[in-house]
Amino acid sequence: MAGTPPQGMVPTAPAIFIKVVKAEGIRQHNGQDPTPSMLIRVSVAGEAMPQVLKTKPMPAGVDPTWNQEFMLPVPDPTQAQLECTLWDDSDPQPQGYANFLGEVLLNLARLAPYKGHYIEQLFYIKQGKTILTDDQASGNLKLGLRLDIPDGFLPPAAAPTASPTATQNQHDAAENTAAEQQAVQEAEASQMQAAEAERRAVEQAQVLAEAQRQAKQQVGEQALQQAEAQRRAADAAAMTEAAEQAERQQSEQEEWRQMQAAAQAQAEAQRKAADAEAQKIMEEQRVIQEQRLLAEQATRQA
Q1: Strand partners, 43
Q2: What stretch of H or E contains 218?
Q3: Alpha-carbon distance values, 46 to 43, 49, 50, 105 (Å)
Q4: Beta strand residue intervals within 149-225, DSSP E
Q5: Which residue positions in the chain have pLDDT lower than 70?
Q6: What is the DSSP string of 84-124?
Q7: Within a 10 A sphere around the Cβ of 117, how many other Cβ atoms?
Q8: Environment class of 73 (CB within 10 Å of its CB; exposed 0-12, middle 13-18, buried 19+)
């Protein structure tokens, strides 16, 4: 029966309200993410009650979220145990209990002092003592629980009897049961403390991993910035070298042009000097020729 009783309803018989919230980090099956579902039932003094409830199977994954609510009768809360077993529904023909993913067993007597109060808690998923698989169970199961017990309810073991011997036997049995329950409660308290310590250790590991990731990211960003600065410096040096080389080439070309101009000026001066010398020689020859002609004319006239 799913859902919570209507607000204000007084329970007529003991019952446990269960909200299956989610699971985290459950194991894989056959190397793949399972399609997890959960079976829920109550057992009293080691005898399983006939009513069994099942959550809906979730899509493949190791962190399913159900948020489903159920109610189961609890004939004797002082000797009752809530059994939550997880299974992989993706395997149509499992070999034995190969699709068993783990279990959470809770002593409901521990909830009796908190009857009527809703408590939500994380429980460590265990392998169990009777079901053996190749892979061990892992992860946590988050449950919300409320144990409803009517006022004045007496468990069957506490009902009065007419026989003093029977009464003494019941008293002794109750004391033994109380001692056993105390031991179970202490063991479960130790289990819950261990699960809480493991959860905190996981959270601390996640925080440390995130800090390391951020540090690596920061180092990577610094390395990128340093590489970018080096690239820019190299580009600037290359540009400076190219500018200096262009300036040297321009200077060399200017010197070459000046040398060519000087050589051309020198050649022009030499040409002009040669032309002047040739003109002078021609003028001297002309004068000599004229003098010779005058001399020959004078000789003929004489």
Answers
A1: 48, 81
A2: helix 164-301
A3: 6, 9, 13, 12
A4: none
A5: 1-11, 130, 156-192, 195
A6: EEEEETT-SS-STTTTEEEEEEEEGGGGGGGTT--EEEEEE
A7: 10
A8: middle
The CB density around residue 202, as the number of other CB atoms within 10 Å, is 13
Alpha-carbon distances of 279 from 53, 82, 269, rounded to whole Å: 135, 137, 15
Assigned token pair, 232: 């820019």
What is the DSSP track for 243-265?
Answer: HHHHHHHHHHHHHHHHHHHHHHH
Q: How far apart are CA 46 and CA 237, in angstroms?
A: 84
Distance (Å, whole) CA 62 – CA 24: 6
Alpha helices in 17-75 (DSSP H): none
The answer to whether 123 and 192 have CB atoms below 8 angstroms apart is yes
| pTM recorded for the entire structure | 0.51
Of 13, 97, 100, 96, which is closest to residue 49 (Cα–Cα)? Answer: 13
Q: Count how many Cα atoms sit within 13 Å of the Cα of residue 56 in the half-sphere of its side chain.
A: 9
Starting at the edge strand that comes first in sequence, how are the strands of the sheet with 140-148 ordered? 65-73, 15-24, 140-148, 119-124
pLDDT for 143: 96
Q: What is the pLDDT of residue 171?
A: 47
DSSP state of 12: S
Would you state the pLDDT for residue 16? 95
Distance CA(297)–CA(302), nearest Å, equals 9
Q: Which of 80, 71, 132 is nearest to 105 (CA)?
A: 80
132: which residues sit within 8 A by CB, 6+ positions away?
97
